[in-house]
Design goal:
Pfam families: Usp. The chain is built from seven helices and five strands, in the order βαβαααβαβααβ. It is an alpha/beta fold. The protein has a five-stranded parallel sheet, with helices on both faces.
Length: 150
């Protein structure tokens, strides 16, 4: 199967598994010369917190989710890894509920594959707390690669 576009959904908990996510991305992107879309989805509350923490001057200029995502540490780490392997990528940010918005981004970008990180959870943990990765795996318009923390 030829892959043209791979959506990598990086979240706040992915910092410790960024290397594994990058390796999984390179493994599928490099052979097919696919373009990678590095994405970070923020809830409204997370977005406001990040704008404040990164000291964006929102009174002088409008700040887009793409600009905020570009400054996110995990996205920068992934971008550096992809650069090292000459994998082409773009960075997208979005605001919304994590799982649904990642699925929307997969549709908008025409993704042939989604790569998402997560941690191992018990069935009870999934039912009680929900799971972004589970939502994406069940709703994405394409195959999903799940990169679990060690």
């Amino acid at each position: 199967m030829t892959l043209n576009t791979i959506l990598v959904a990086a979240g706040p908990g992915d910092a410790e598994r960024a290397e594994e996510i990058a390796d999984a991305t390179v493994e599928v992107a490099a052979p097919s010369n696919a373009t990678v879309v590095l994405s970070h989805v923020f809830t409204e509350e997370e977005y406001d917190d990040v704008l404040e923490r990164l000291e964006f001057d929102t009174e002088r200029t409008e700040v887009t989710p793409d600009e905020v995502a570009q400054r996110h540490a995990t996205i920068r780490t992934l971008a550096d890894s992809l650069d090292a392997y000459d994998v082409e990528f773009e960075i997208r940010g979005a605001i919304g509920e994590h799982g649904e918005t990642i699925t929307d981004l997969a549709e908008e970008t025409g993704a042939d594959r989604v790569i998402v990180g997560g941690r191992k959870r018990s069935p009870t943990g999934k039912a009680v707390f929900g799971s972004t990765a589970q939502t994406v795996m069940l709703s994405a318009p394409c195959p999903v690669t799940f990169v679990r923390e060690e």
